[in-house]
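Database export, one record per block. Field names are fixed; values are copied verbatim from the stored entry.
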Amino acid sequence: MLRIEVGQADLAASRFGFAPLMETLNALGLVAGRVPPGPLRPWVERARLRYPPIADDPAIRALVFLRRRFGYMADFVSPPPARPNLTVAEQLATMRATPLDQAREEIGRNLVGLPEPDGAVRDLLDAPDMVERLAVGLETAWTALLEPDWAVVRSIVESDIVHRAGRLAAYGWAEALDGLSRQVSWRDGVIEVDIRGGGDATRRLGGAGLMLVPVVFSELALAVEQDWPYTLMYRARGVAALWEGRTPRGEDALAGLVGRTRADLLRLLAEPATTTWLSARLRLSVGGVGDHLAVLRASGLVTKERSGRSVLYRRTAVGDVLAGAP
C-alpha cells in the first residue's frame, strides 16, 4: 500500500494535466497485445486495423518491447504532464531534450525483468541517436493510432478534469477521489493507493501538491520518481464515448420541438460540458455545436459559465423539464 500524506497547502497546489505521449505509448501497448484491452476492447479491435503498417518499424518494436503492465518504465519516453492542454509536439520536444546518459540509465531500469530484446531492438536501444529514434517512433504511433481519435480522447479527459477539479475545489479530497478507483481511498489526511508491485511506503507532498492525470488508455498508476511531480494517473470517466457514435433515435416530441441536434445536446447536458466535449460526442464541428448552443441559450434552455480555462454549458430548470430529467 502506498500512502501519500496531504497537508493543507497541498489542496491549493494540486493540479490536473494532460498526457498525450503517455496515452500514445499506452494505446500502442494495447493494439500490440502487450496489455489486456479490458473495457477498451471495442476501440482496440478497431484501432488494430491501423497497426500493421507501422508494426515492423524498429522504433515501434522497441517501444512495444519497453511497454510493461507492471514495474518501472523509462520516464523520458512519457515525460510528466506539467499542465493541462499540453500538445504532442511540446511533449516530444521535452523528450528529445533528454540527455543520452539519463535515457540509457532509465532504459536499463526498464529492461530489468524483461527477456533479452531481439537484435533490431537491441541495436536501436544502444544507438547514439536512441532518444531521437524513439521520439520519431512515438510520433509515428501518435499519427497512426491516436490522432484520428484525439478530439474524442481530449473531450473525455477535459470533461473529467472539469468534474474532479470542481469537486476538489468545492468539497476537498474525499469528494474528489470518490469513484476515482476502487484502489484509491482517503483516510485521515492520507491518500491510500493499492497498486500491484507498488510496495509499502509513505510519501509526503510537503506543500507541492499532487498532479492528477485522467487517462483513457491505461489503468491506475502512481509516479513518485524523484525528478517527477508526484502524479496520480487514473482512468477518466466516460471512455465509452471513444467508440460510441451518435446513436440515431426515432422521432420524439423534443426533437419535433427543437430539432434533432438540439434535442441531443439537451440530453447530453445531464452534466455540465464544454463545446469541445459536445462536438466530439456528437461528431459535429465545434462551430456548429456552438451555433446550436447559442440558440438554446437564447431560449433559456441552457446557461454557460467559465470554470478555469473552460466554458461550461449546463441545462436550466426549463431545459431539465424538456429533456425529461427527474
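Remark 1: The beta strands are 2-5, 15-16, 184-187, 190-193, 201-204, 211-215, 221-223, 231-235, 302-307, 310-315.
Remark 2: The chain has three domains: 2-16+152-236, 20-148, 246-323.
End of record.
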